């Protein structure tokens, strides 16, 4: 089913008008052919796609707007070119150039080149006004160059602020902590550079280099953040597995009973967890404290834990997390969980209460919510 005509007509009509314009003038040649090819591709996309957003995105991605406009400008310039031996006048060159930009302005203002390009309309309008102010063509060209319009209007890459905002919104929806920080700074950078730019659009190379600088500055903190989360997640898992290894369901749990394992292998796996996890846990806990300067109680109040807990990225239920806290002092080499703790984890397993009900659901749109520690740990 084609894209709704209500949308495609508004977007493609300006280009159809320009195509009819060159036809009425009797213009031919490679540039006119390029216009026809670009418009034909636009028309084909309108018929083959059924979603306007996808259609608009394809037009932008394939640069069909700029291909058509560039070819149209070249066709008009070629039409105004003098016959062999005849020198073109400045007035004719000025008129040809301004007519091309007036068509571009009409396309931008109507939204025919996409919503993002509407922001370029004031720059093109300024250029047309400059040309219509009575100055000569050489002066016009000099001012265009001095004011930084040349690269902008010749198709230089424009990074739309909307794209940065979309990246920021996507990161917020996924609770990607350092992606949020990075994209926030990128938007601020864009606004600062745009405010200082003559046409309100950042210079592409400066924007690219400054964006890379932001990513470079955040990378050490990003890696530390991720490393902390991976390591305290391992500590939680070691305690959970150690307690569950003493439960009646352990011989049937895939953590110890993988496909094809014999009964003897299963019991060896369980015994390994019971005997080795306490030493492994205490060794990793000491390393964690050495590298990150956080004790076991402080982990639960750290911003990384609060962030993961709020955003549904900790799979353990609150009941299981409380059980982990009670298991912690007993997890010592040669130690064993109390019968009460073993009974509670078995009950949780029966009720399937060991995982959070919100596990795997989209993160909530709410403030950070720290895990409520028992008074004995505060």
Task: Describe the fold and architecture.
There is one protein chain. With 378 residues, the chain is mostly helical. It contains 16 helices and no strands. It folds into 3 domains: 5-156, no CATH class; 162-202; 221-377, no CATH class. It is 67% helix and 0% strand. Helix 4 runs antiparallel to helix 5 (90-110) and helix 10 (177-196) packs antiparallel against helix 11.
Low-confidence stretches: none
Determine the structural class based on helices, strands and strand pairing.
mainly alpha
Alpha-carbon Rg, integer: 33 Å
Number of helices: 16
Order of H and E elements = HHHHHHHHHHHHHHHH
Q: How many β-strand stretches?
A: 0
Q: In the residues, how many domains can be counted? A: 3
Features:
single chain, mainly alpha, 16 helices, 0% strand
Summary of the model, kept short:
With 378 residues, the protein is mainly α.
Helix-strand blueprint:
Layout: H1 5-24, H2 30-48, H3 52-61, H4 64-80, H5 90-110, H6 121-131, H7 137-146, H8 149-153, H9 161-173, H10 177-196, H11 204-244, H12 263-292, H13 296-301, H14 303-310, H15 318-327, H16 339-351
């Amino acid at each position: 089913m084609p894209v709704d005509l209500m949308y495609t007509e508004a977007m493609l009509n300006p280009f159809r008008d320009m195509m009819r314009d060159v036809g009425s003038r009797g213009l031919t040649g490679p540039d006119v052919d390029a216009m026809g090819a670009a418009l034909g591709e636009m028309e084909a996309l309108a018929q083959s796609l059924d979603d306007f957003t996808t259609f608009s995105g394809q037009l932008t991605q394939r640069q069909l707007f700029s291909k058509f406009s560039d070819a149209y400008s070249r066709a008009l310039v070629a039409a105004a070119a003098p016959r062999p031996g005849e020198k073109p006048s400045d007035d004719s060159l000025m008129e040809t150039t301004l007519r091309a930009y007036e068509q571009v302005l009409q396309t931008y203002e109507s939204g025919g080149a996409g919503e993002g390009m509407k922001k370029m309309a004031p720059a093109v309008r300024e250029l047309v006004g400059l040309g219509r102010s009575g100055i000569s063509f050489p002066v016009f060209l000099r001012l265009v160059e001095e004011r930084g319009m040349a690269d902008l209007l010749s198709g230089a890459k424009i990074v739309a602020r909307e794209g940065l905002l979309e990246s920021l919104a996507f990161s917020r929806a996924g609770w990607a902590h350092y992606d949020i920080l990075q994209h926030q700074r990128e938007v601020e950078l864009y606004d600062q550079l745009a405010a200082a730019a003559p046409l309100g659009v950042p210079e592409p190379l400066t924007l690219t280099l400054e964006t890379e600088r932001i990513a470079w500055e955040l990378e050490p903190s990003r890696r530390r953040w991720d490393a902390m989360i991976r390591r305290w997640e391992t500590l939680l898992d070691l305690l959970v597995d150690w307690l569950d290894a003493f439960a009646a369901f352990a011989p049937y749990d895939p953590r110890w009973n993988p496909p094809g394992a014999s009964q003897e292998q299963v019991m060896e796996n369980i015994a390994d967890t019971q005997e080795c996890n306490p030493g492994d846990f205490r060794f990793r806990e000491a390393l964690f404290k050495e590298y990150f300067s956080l004790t076991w109680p402080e982990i639960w109040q750290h911003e990384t834990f609060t962030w993961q807990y709020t955003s549904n990225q900790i799979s353990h239920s609150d009941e299981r997390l409380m059980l982990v806290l009670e298991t912690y002092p007993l997890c010592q080499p040669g130690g064993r969980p109390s019968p009460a703790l073993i009974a509670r984890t078995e009950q949780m397993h029966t009720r399937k209460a060991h995982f959070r009900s919100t596990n795997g659901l989209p993160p909530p749109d709410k403030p950070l919510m720290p895990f409520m520690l028992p008074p004995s740990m505060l």
